[in-house]
Design goal:
Number of domains: 3
GO cellular component, one term: membrane
Keywords: Membrane, Transmembrane, Transmembrane helix
Transmembrane segments: 42-63, 75-97, 103-121, 133-154, 188-205, 212-230, 236-256, 263-282, 288-308, 320-338, 350-369
Radius of gyration: 24 Å
Protein name: CapC domain protein
InterPro entries: Capsule_biosynth_CapC
């Protein structure tokens, strides 16, 4: 895990500098280091990633050329197309090379990053796109080289934390003849559950955003935390504590530096990665969390803290309560669909957890009710508009198209 954390820190730093100095997107805040890390773990990753990105790019081009869609709709289209393309590509490769790629590792294949990359590249001007692609390629190869050198030169260095790249399923261990340590955790979550989580979470996230103009903690963070918590009940405490700490850190950093947007998000994810690395080095023997779960939960800590920072103070408490309620609901569904292992949440002390869960869901429902009540009535909103009361060229307010005509309605 030390190696993947170093790759992540270097990649995030490169992305922050590129965004701050040259306004380069590099395909997304986390795309470059995540792509390098998964390439070391599975050598088919670049093929899957490129096919998913090209498919998402084609969908964006078609929508821009033949429809009036823009902004968020284009982004969702790119993400959805990229996910479908990566799933299909992974399935085909798993059938052609069954000994090389196992389609059961659906968590690694169903990624939103190809769609994000295509969307960000589409937003870059054609004159700068070639230069940005060149920087992405060079940065990707540099991160791969850093990872290989660290694993090769310091083989005992990586055994101090929960394994990530040194598991038996990692391709890099066989390629550089590195002795794997640790064993992968037993699979307790069926692949079909993982595959349907992403579209459902996107639907809930976007529906909530459009209905209440309110952002949740992240598109896939809540259900993914549920999946991690099935393997280790400590993930919830680790995330909650980390998100709180990093939130105060980035709030202070923003106050002192005026950072915002992509740069502040990068700083937040960077701090989340450092937080998970410190935990892995000093506390991994006391609290058992798998290396993959620990690494990605650290990333989620940074994203969650950043999104909490973006929310206004007035709705920040509602943000926390609703996110917590959605987590309880999603984990309850997992509880009924799978057998929770000994290390997972809700394996014992059911009465206590049920009581706490009911309280959390009740608070979330109260906040949802308040948000629902805050939505103005459409007719009242239109009647209060300045245009509804205007009189231009002899047209009175009673003839405004913004106000309903009771006679016409009848």
């Amino acid at each position: 895990m030390i190696v993947v954390s170093i790759i992540m820190i270097i990649g995030l730093t490169l992305g922050a500098l590129a965004a701050q100095l040259k306004s380069y997107r590099l395909g997304g805040v986390m795309v470059l280091p995540i792509l390098a890390i998964y390439t070391l773990r599975e050598f088919f990753t670049p093929v899957i990633f490129i096919i998913g990105t090209v498919a998402a790019w084609i969908s964006l081009w078609v929508l821009q050329e033949y429809t009036l869609n823009y902004g968020r709709r284009l982004f969702l289209s790119a993400v959805s197309t990229g996910v479908i393309a990566t799933i299909l590509t992974g399935f085909v490769l798993s059938q052609v090379f069954p000994n090389q790629l196992s389609f059961e590792t659906a968590e690694a294949i169903t990624s939103i990053f190809p769609g994000i990359t295509a969307f960000n590249l589409m937003r870059v001007s054609s004159g700068n796109r070639r230069a940005e692609l060149l920087i992405i390629g060079c940065g990707y190869l540099a991160l791969i080289a850093v990872g290989v050198l660290l694993l090769w030169l310091f083989p005992t260095f990586v055994t101090q934390t929960p394994p990530f790249l040194t598991l038996q399923i990692s391709d890099i261990t066989a390629w550089i003849e590195l002795r794997p340590h640790g064993s992968p955790h037993s699979r307790v979550i069926p692949g079909w559950i993982v595959l349907i989580i992403l579209p459902i979470s996107i639907f809930i996230y976007e529906g909530f955003r459009q209905r209440y103009d309110h952002r949740l903690v992240g598109i896939v963070i809540i259900p993914t935390l549920g999946l991690f918590t099935v393997q280790s009940s400590s993930v919830v405490i680790f995330y909650t504590l980390g998100a709180t700490i990093i939130y105060y850190f980035i709030t202070y950093i923003q106050y002192m530096t005026l950072f915002y947007g992509r740069v502040l998000l990068t700083v937040s994810i960077l701090l989340g990665t450092i937080y998970s690395l410190i935990f892995g080095v000093f506390f991994s023997q006391l609290v058992l969390i798998p290396g993959v779960s620990l690494f990605f939960t650290g990333i989620f800590v940074g994203i969650g803290a950043y999104n909490l920072n973006r929310v206004s103070r007035k709705t920040r408490l509602a943000h926390i309560r609703i996110d917590a309620g959605l987590f309880v609901i999603s984990y309850t569904l997992l509880f009924f669909l799978i057998d929770i292992p000994v290390t997972g949440l809700l394996h014992d002390n059911l009465v206590f957890y049920i009581f706490v869960g009911i309280m959390i869901v009740a608070l979330a429902v109260i906040e949802m009710y308040r948000l629902e009540q805050s939505i103005p009535d459409a007719t009242a909103f239109a009647s209060e508009s300045a245009f509804a009361r205007s009189s231009v060229d002899g047209i009175g307010s009673y003839e405004s198209s913004l106000t309903a005509d009771n006679q016409e309605d009848k």
